């Protein structure tokens, strides 16, 4: 199991309606963390701002995360031992919850699974991945 | 089939518990032993292992040793979500599993033949299964089917503790294992394929062998004509009937749980016992039942609690049919079985802890730097924080006389934006927010509906409809929930973003703070009470100018990934000015000299702004805010106690020390205490009760006088922080 690495995401808080209607740049991974919040991976910062039609939206480049990428089989094994929520039967899908006692977010694609957590949990994440 | 550990023991002439009827089916408590440091192992369910370290439990009521801490081990846990769980893989269970699978359902089975046992059903639903590879948590979306079959009725008569007693269903296993049975006498249903003599009549007792008082020598029965018959025996086969193995079924009451097969078949009616041990786990006798019954315990649940019958390792499988029959004989009505709760089996601490993790203690981006610098780290407010770097006095001095850095990344941080941002904050804070101009900030408290202080922090205005808030490190999570709850309650059109873990924060503090920042390239530093977005050492920062130390202070809030770079750049920039980092120990003294409270340390659960001498922090003219009515009501009450500043000579008393009035009555408690290097005396905050309507000028702590003084202790005009 590899060590978690820093990742950069975009966090956007806006009205649910604005997020529902947003047209994101292709190849952007959109994680809907709450009705009024999305977290973007692999995003184009310039294109993101124009995607959200809410002039009060809060848009941040957020460097406070660490993550690992696993093969789906490896992720399934780790999560089934460390999380009590159902694992997906289809992909891509976004999941979030507690795993190994840590708040994690999971982007589950067909060929790779990205699991990330706030950077202040990085040391525990590294320890609990092993 | 391979031998079990029990067979291995019996072949070696050992009985795990010294005696009692063996069922070889995992039901009775008579094969329990300590195995490899684990207590209460059912040896009949464990494969033989000549190398196993087995501790037999010996005679009646012998308490087994607890699991040795040196032998604790980690138990793996796997969670499986499925459609159906089938517990038991006898004919009925197999049929149910096959049927569900044929219907396209994802079925998980629990098979005792594979060493698996379901040890509990919890709401959820959740089925906890022990397997040779660890624990499995099965979470079915649909049914839990219990097909656990039935257990043998065990005898309750004098002598039932002897060796040589075996259920009729178990005897063939012993024979197949090559264990010499000697003369077999069958009571009740006979064993299959085993030569035996049948005992006639009702079982009365077992007599011990004349050559070995621990082993059965004869079966004594009584026939309808009243005649007693004694039949010599080396092994007694007991076919006394079956009772449903239904603990899991009862445990799952109210959930989607269904029984199939023998587990829902009627139990054999057993005769009320008249003598002997009813509960072999805890050695409860028929006389014990009579004793508690005569004292008024007539309900089965009460009899269970009064005698503890049914609370031992077998969880009532052995005793409950007899206790129910005994109560039926007394009450004329068969009571229903008692409640079943998890677990059905003893579990080790490692099993209980399987899959559990402690909540992480958070680490700032500078955590590794602090540790490499030799910091003594402490957990505070949910974070690892540097307490000091080896010389807290020098750290203190650096702040008062030169410049120092503090890692304040732990502070709660939140952005609030939207058309109703101002309305929300006006409702949350007891001071007016509207007059706060863009670029300004102010320190304020959060109150609950009862007017009690729940947190404090800064409100920074970024625009008419956008604000940046800070909270205490330990209170940030609650504060976020508080803001969100009120936004929902008010229907406020706002956007809320918690940035606590996304942003680092460094406090540059000391008389030379501005010089360090200028050397690091900062231009346009904000004046006191203001904030500004400035690049420092190439890092985009929000710089907040206020002070918690009493000296010039700039808090630099910035992207977390830049914290290390910024920290190093600031240390470089201040190297010629004597810059050094300070830990919490120094910070707590610095702030105490200024009389600043720490919410949660100096405040209590019922601290009002008036009680902490912070009436300046509430607007009397403000028409609405959380806690307003309570503030006005409590302000009209007679004063009872106040958080005060005290000075004493050395040594500084311990925090938590009791404060007394001159007459010896308790007046309060010390909440913060430190020796002040700059003032050369002890300074403290503490609660002081009013003496009538008067606040005493002095009190006594540890038998020494403490003088009440005005706050702050240091730089009362605040000129240093504003410099």
Describe the structure.
The complex is a heterodimer of chains A (130) and B (723). Chain A has four helices and seven strands, in the order βαββαβαβββα. Chain A is of the alpha+beta class and 130 residues long. A seven-stranded antiparallel β-sheet of chain A has the order 2-3-1-4-7-6-5. Chain B is of the alpha+beta class. Chain B is 20% helix and 30% strand. In chain B, the strands form eleven sheets. Chain B has a six-stranded mixed β-sheet. Chain B has a six-stranded antiparallel β-barrel with strand order 36-39-38-37-40-41. In chain B, helix 10 (392-401) packs across helix 15. Chain B is elongated and about 110 Å long.
Précis, in short:
Chain A has helices at about 15-20, 45-50, 70-80, 120-130, and strands at about 5-15, 30-35, 35-40, 60-70, 95-100, 100-110, 115-120. With about 130 residues, chain A is α+β, with helices and mostly antiparallel strands. With about 725 residues, chain B is of the alpha+beta class.
């Amino acid at each position: 199991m590899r060590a978690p690495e820093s990742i950069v995401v975009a966090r956007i808080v806006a009205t649910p309606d604005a997020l529902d209607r947003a047209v994101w740049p292709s190849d952007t991974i959109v994680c809907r963390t709450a009705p009024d919040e999305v977290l973007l991976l692999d995003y184009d910062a310039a294109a993101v701002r124009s995607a959200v039609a809410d002039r009060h939206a809060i848009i941040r480049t957020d460097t406070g995360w660490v993550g690992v990428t696993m093969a789906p089989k490896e992720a399934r094994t780790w999560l089934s031992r460390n999380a009590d929520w159902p694992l997906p039967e289809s992909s891509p899908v976004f999941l979030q919850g507690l795993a190994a006692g840590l708040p994690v977010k999971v982007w589950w694609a067909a060929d790779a699974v990205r699991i990330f957590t706030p950077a202040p949990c990085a040391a525990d994440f590294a320890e609990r991945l092993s | 089939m391979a031998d079990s550990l029990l067979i291995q023991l019996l072949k070696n002439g050992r009985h795990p518990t010294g005696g009692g009827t063996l069922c070889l089916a995992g039901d009775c408590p008579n094969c329990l032993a300590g195995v490899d440091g684990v207590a209460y192992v059912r040896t009949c369910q464990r494969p033989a292992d000549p190398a196993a370290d087995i501790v037999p439990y010996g005679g009646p009521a012998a308490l087994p040793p607890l699991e040795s801490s040196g032998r604790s081990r980690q138990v793996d846990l796997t969670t499986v979500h499925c459609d159906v769980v089938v517990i038991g893989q006898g004919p009925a269970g197999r049929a149910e599993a096959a049927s569900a699978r044929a219907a396209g359902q994802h079925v998980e089975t629990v098979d005792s033949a594979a060493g698996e046992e379901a040890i509990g059903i919890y709401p959820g639903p959740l089925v906890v299964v022990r397997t040779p590879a660890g624990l499995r948590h099965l979470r079915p979306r649909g049914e839990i089917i219990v097909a656990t079959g039935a257990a043998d009725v065990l005898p309750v008569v004098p002598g039932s503790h002897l060796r040589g007693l075996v259920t009729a269903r178990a005897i063939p296993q012993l024979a197949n294992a090559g264990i010499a049975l000697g003369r077999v006498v069958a009571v009740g249903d006979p064993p299959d394929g085993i030569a035996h003599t049948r005992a006639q009549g009702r079982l009365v007792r077992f007599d011990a062998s004349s050559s070995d008082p621990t082993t059965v020598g004869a079966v004594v029965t009584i026939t309808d004509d009243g005649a007693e018959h004694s039949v010599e025996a080396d092994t007694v086969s007991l076919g006394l009937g079956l009772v449903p193995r239904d603990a899991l079924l009862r445990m799952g009451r109210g959930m989607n749980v269904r029984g199939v097969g023998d587990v829902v078949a009627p139990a054999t009616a057993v005769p009320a016992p008249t003598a002997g041990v009813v509960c072999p786990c805890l050695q409860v006798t028929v006389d014990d039942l009579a004793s508690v019954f005569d004292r008024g315990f007539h309900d089965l649940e009460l009899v269970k609690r009064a005698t503890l019958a049914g609370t031992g390792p077998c969880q009532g499988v052995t005793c409950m049919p007899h206790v129910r029959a005994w109560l039926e004989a007394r009450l004329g009505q068969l009571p229903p079985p008692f409640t079943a709760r998890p677990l059905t089996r003893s579990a080790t601490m490692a099993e209980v802890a399987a899959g559990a993790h402690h909540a992480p203690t958070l680490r700032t981006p500078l955590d590794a730097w602090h540790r490499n610098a030799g910091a003594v780290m402490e957990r505070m407010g949910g974070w690892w924080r540097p307490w000091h770097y080896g010389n807290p006095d020098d750290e203190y001095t650096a702040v008062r006389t030169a410049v120092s850095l503090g890692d304040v990344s732990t502070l709660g941080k939140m952005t609030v934006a939207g058309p109703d941002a101002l309305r929300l904050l006006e409702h949350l804070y007891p001071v007016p927010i509207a007059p706060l101009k863009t670029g300004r900030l102010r320190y304020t408290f959060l109150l609950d509906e009862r007017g009690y202080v729940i947190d404090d922090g800064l409100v920074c205005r970024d625009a008419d409809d956008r604000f940046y808030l800070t909270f205490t490190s330990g209170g940030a999570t609650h504060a976020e929930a508080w803001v969100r709850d009120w936004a929902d309650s008010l229907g406020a059109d706002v956007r809320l973003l918690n940035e606590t873990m996304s942003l680092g924060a460094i406090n540059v503090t000391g008389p030379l703070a501005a010089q360090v920042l200028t050397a690091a390239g900062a231009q346009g530093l904000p004046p006191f009470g203001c904030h500004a977005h400035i690049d420092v050492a190439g890092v985009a920062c929000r710089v907040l100018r206020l002070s918690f130390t009493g000296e010039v202070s700039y808090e630099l809030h910035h992207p977390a990934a830049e914290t290390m770079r910024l920290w190093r750049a600031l240390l470089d920039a201040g190297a010629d000015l004597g810059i050094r980092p300070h830990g919490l120990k120094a910070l707590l003294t610095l702030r105490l000299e200024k009389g600043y409270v720490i919410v949660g340390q100096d405040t209590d659960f019922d601290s009002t702004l008036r009680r902490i001498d912070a009436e300046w922090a509430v607007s009397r003219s403000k028409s609405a805010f959380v806690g307003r009515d309570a503030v006005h009501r409590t302000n009209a009450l007679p004063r009872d106690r106040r958080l005060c500043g005290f000075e004493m000579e050395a040594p500084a008393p311990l925090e938590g020390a009791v404060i007394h009035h001159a007459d010896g009555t308790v007046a309060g408690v010390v909440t913060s205490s430190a020796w002040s290097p700059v003032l050369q005396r002890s300074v403290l905050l503490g609660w002081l009760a009013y003496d009538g309507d008067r606040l005493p000028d002095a009190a006594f702590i540890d038998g020494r006088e403490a003088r009440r003084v005005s706050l702050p202790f240091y730089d009362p005009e605040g000129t240093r922080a504003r410099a």
